[in-house]
Amino acid sequence: MTTSTMTTLHGLPEALKVALTCASKDGLVTLAYSGGLDSRFLAFAAKRLGFTVRLLHISGTHVAPSDTEEALNYAKSMGLSVELVHVDPTNLMDLVNAGRTRCYVCKRHLFEALLKVSGDYPLSDGTNASDCLVYRPGRKALEELGIHSPLAESGITKDEIRRLGRALGFEAPDQAARPCLLTRFPYGVCPTKAQLDLIAEVEHWIATHPTYHALRFRLRFPDGVTPSLHVEESSMKIVGLEELEDLKEALKHIFGSRLEQLTVETQTTLSGFYDRN
Asked: Which contacts (CB < 8 Å, 24+ apart) does range 83-86 have?
């Protein structure tokens, strides 16, 4: 963490309390809540520090239904409720033409919708300090719209979130990232609803399978048409190459013609695949 190590009585950095105070109104923190590690931790921390927490969760074809369900369950376990805001960015022609700034166009569209719901109250998101060091074109949209990022503003990194989470009894501090389904496609491609539904179904099947659930993976369409399952090598501690071939055949059997051309590849790292290609 890049900020002072001074902590509050609640075991959280004093800098985070200050950032949340600046991002609140009448003691209320309104948070764009995906249900991922960062937004969950920010909601957890805000509540622990005595703020009233309002969670806004975007649902749409670009978000797997299982991710929304998981987000709702995590919120419930924290004693918080969630307001669903339905937004579908897949019909934005600007999104197709945006190229590498696709995330900027999408995030601006989504957060404009959230700002309408939040009204006169400030809106925050879960961006952390680590995100500021990597390629994140969506950050520009947040800055333009005046979105607060208390974790980033207080210098809290992803590793610090996990460390603090473990120390404070935060649920699932090692939760893996599950970016929106649009990131499974190369820039310039407009995915169909059928493709997005397929990704959501396949990834949920793998994530809940007793043999394959520990894998880190993404189902992508590198050419916009042909599905390819990318598996991170470091997660293959129990599942070997033969088991991956079994997984491929199982998926083709279960999903039939929808995965007829499926390929399986191992990757050194899953993040930023299209940024490297």
From this structure: 83/54, 83/55, 83/56, 83/57, 83/117, 84/57, 84/58, 84/59, 85/56, 85/57, 85/58, 85/59, 85/113, 85/114, 85/117, 86/58, 86/59, 86/60
Same-domain check for residues 126 and 21 = yes
Q: What's the pLDDT score for residue 90?
A: 85
Token digits for 208?
């809940």
pLDDT of residue 276: 67
User: What is the three-class DSSP state of 124?
Assistant: strand
- Domain with residue 212: its CATH number is 3.30.300.170
Containing structural domain, residue 131: 14-168
Q: Is residue 117 part of a domain?
A: yes
Q: Which two tokens stand for residue 6?
A: 């001074």
Both tokens of 158, joined, read: 């992803």
Residues written for the chain: 277
The whole-number mean pLDDT for each consecutive block of 10 residues of the chain, a chain of 277 residues, reads 62 96 98 98 98 97 96 98 94 86 94 98 97 87 98 97 97 92 93 95 96 95 97 92 95 97 95 79
Are residue 21 and residue 99 in the same domain, yes or no?
Answer: yes
Total domain count, the chain: 2
